[in-house]
């Protein structure tokens, strides 16, 4: 590539959309720069997946222990402060590890906020100009905040993950991934939780009968759900906060989590200076992840598309750009099936054709009552069911499961869905028994 510029490829942002491909790209001899305004690693390691799953672990274990009551003796309780400390120990080392990964590969990390000057030049912190042949926008998402009076009194998911003590009464606005995962965690840790819905639907992207099972379980555990809440204002009171909602109703609470979605980090990037097209859903790209400006690309959460905004999708795009920039491919990006999971207890996981779509298209849908299958009974799982979808030739084309280990069951079936295995091919496989993966294959 050209030596007219400081770097061959310059990434803005140091999350999964950058480092998973940026480090191996640097190893091929391409000169790589990375500009990051916050922690190297971005959302997933520092304030997303890794942090969340660490504080969820005792939640999952406590739930299991409750079911084993009588076999296991004693009452297990979560020490919130220690749980958060443990999370911090796990994630504290990640930015340095990822910095080492990039730097050992030959990439240069520049700390600061990037803004475009022209299509080959970025200004860092308003001072230093950095130039590159190609630039990748990988700036991710940030929390959306409700546009209502008192919005500054609410907190976001990062604040929740850093709570040193657990407030007694938490109100969560939004019932998507973050709202439901954090409601599950805080409820099990002992907080009094209210979830305020925008409509009457929770986790609208998941199979609703399974969502209902999770919601009913949380209701039995004391979580309150307010449908069509129409939240209007947050105010400070002597003892905490008050939420005005609905038809001038009020709710007193100790802590408010605004979990109403995430929006692209684009507004202070200077995209207008270079004419890159975008809207509130993200940056527009073609099937090579290239924007309308030839040398500017985008990857990860910040891209405008219908894919789940999850780490494995950012990883896949980052790897694709590595192959494109190092000359290993000129092909368009071809996404494999992208699974998704919500880490409630139990989890709901899905991949491929959804049950709703299968019903519309008349595919074969089989229902598996896993709660009555011996291996799920080992854990005494009360809520466990899956649906597998086959096309007319017997290929597995979709699965959705609600259970404690739904993510592993779905992961185990991914090759069958991606490579369109039929029942005959699946019957050739001998798995390890007894395992969740085997239980899933056994039904495919
Ligand atoms: C609470 C939470 C839980 C999650 N749990 C899961 C999960 O369990 N599984 C899963 O697969 N996904 C999960 N996700 C989603 C996952 O974190 C994202 O899909 C993933 O991090 C996207 O990576 P990215 O590189 O596109 O963006 P990010 O990781 O957000 O990285 C973007 C980086 O760009 C930087 N940046 C932004 N603007 C600029 C600028 N102008 N100059 C310099 N730097 C800039 C930011 O500081 C950030 O570090 C979760 C997200 C959240 C918030
Ligand atoms: N397990 C995972 O993979 C995982 C976990 C957490 C987050 N994430 C990622 O982070 C993204 C953001 O998560 P999220 O939960 O913030 O977003 P989301 O889009 O999943 O949910 C947002 C929720 O806010 C509600 N809402 C919007 N406006 C509202 C209003 N005015 N009043 C009340 N409710 C309102 C929506 O109806 C929805 O229920 C997700 O899209 C996901 O990609 C993934």
From TrEMBL:
Binding site for NAD(+): 174-181, 261
Protein source organism: Companilactobacillus paralimentarius DSM 13238 = JCM 10415
Pyridine nucleotide-disulphide oxidoreductase dimerisation domain residues: 338-437
Cofactor note as given: Binds 1 FAD per subunit.
Binding site for FAD: 301
Keywords per UniProt: FAD, Flavoprotein, NAD, Nucleotide-binding
Co-factor requirement: FAD
Family: Belongs to the class-I pyridine nucleotide-disulfide oxidoreductase family.
Residue ranges constituting the FAD/NAD(P)-binding domain according to the UniProt record: 7-314
Pfam families given in the database record: Pyr_redox_2, Pyr_redox_dim
A single GO molecular function term of this UniProt record: nucleotide binding
Gene3D superfamilies reported in the protein's UniProt record: FAD/NAD(P)-binding domain (3.50.50.60)
Disulfide linkage: 44-49
Transmembrane feature ranges: none
Protein name in UniProt: Glutathione reductase
